[in-house]
Amino acid sequence: MSGNAAATANSRTEPRLAAGQVGLIALFVTALVTAQLTAAKLLALPLPVELPWVGGAIVLPGAALAYALTFFASDCYAELYGRRAAQIVVNVAFVMNFVVLALVWSTIAAPAADPEFAATFEAALAPAGNIVAGSLLAYVVSQNYDVLVFHRLREVTDGSYLWLRNIVSTGTSQAIDTIIFVSVAFVLAPQLFGIGFALPLEEVLALIVGQYLLKLLIAIADTPFVYAVVAVLDPDRERNQ
Predict the structure, then answer these.
(1) SS3 assignment, position 132
(2) For tag attachment on the chain, is the N or C end more exposed, with fewer CB atoms within 10 Å?
(3) In the chain, what's the furthest Cα-to-Cα distance?
(4) Cβ neighbours of residue 179 under 8 Å, at least 6 residues apart?
(5) At what angle do helices 223-233 and 3-38 cross, to 10 degrees?
(6) What CA–CA distance (Å, rounded) separates 77 from 24?
């Protein structure tokens, strides 16, 4: 490609990459905040057949669906802007979790004009301590792992096979996330610190297996969308994927 042609290509791509950077960070943070606020509701997604350990329905926190979007956004971001930039987003967003919690808790603690509504508000939005502990630890470990594995696979494959690094990095990091979250929220926090309530072992296993199956399915299903985002934001990239 000649110098003029390269300059023209860069002038077309740079605004897209700049807009995409803002858009992906916005998606990541929006999904993360939504996950934090919806974690308290348990969903029961019926299955067409009963599965071992899981039964006839997948039980998972409402946050799981929003949280899956954070891995989609971080993988797109890591592919387009690099490992260091992706790690900064992940870890700054981790700190912002505490800002969200502080704002929610301060709003709950503030004097209410309508005490009856305030009680409903608190019941809906007040994050349980065991859920907060489990989600924060699971987040900081699994998201950093996801970025590291994604880029390690990128180096090993010389930038090829985007589908492979998306599925492997997200699939394994979601397994780590699920195990840490469920174990801390429903086993360790209740038993060691008396926070929340402990679940029997069979229910803990059902939660882990059911949640991970759904998250793995999402990781596979979002791969074409990762390709689409990368192609739209960086159409001039030379790649063999």
Answers:
(1) helix
(2) N
(3) 70
(4) 208
(5) 140
(6) 7
Reported as type and span, the H/E element at residue 63 is: helix 63-81
β-strand 42-51 against 55-61: which pairing, if any? antiparallel
Number of H helices, E strands in the chain: 9, 2
Mean pLDDT of 93-108: 91
- Residue 194 carries which side chain, given as an amino acid letter? G
- Is the pLDDT higher at 42 or at 239? 42
Q: What is the pLDDT of residue 8?
A: 47
- Return d(Cα 46, Cα 62) in angstroms, integer: 14
Nearest to 59 by CA among 167, 232, 211: 211
Mean pLDDT of the chain, nearest integer: 87
Looking at the structure, give the CATH architecture of the domain made up of residues 3-233: Orthogonal Bundle (1.10)
H/E stretch holding 58: strand 55-61
pLDDT of residue 6: 45
Domain regions of the chain by residue span: 3-233
Q: Could you give the CA distance from residue 188 to residue 135 in angstroms, rounded to a whole number?
A: 13
Residues 6+ apart with CB under 8 A from 191: 198
Q: Please name which of 65, 82, 71, 69 lies closest in space to residue 17, comparing C-alpha atoms.
A: 82
Question: Cβ distance 187 to 210 under 8 Å?
Answer: no
The crossing angle, in degrees rounded to 10, of helices 3-38 and 63-81 is: 160
Q: Which two tokens stand for residue 59?
A: 């039980």
- CB under 8 A, 24+ apart: contacts of 98-101: 100/33, 100/36, 100/37, 101/36, 101/127, 101/132
Q: CA 221, 211, 164: angle at the middle one, nearest 5?
A: 35
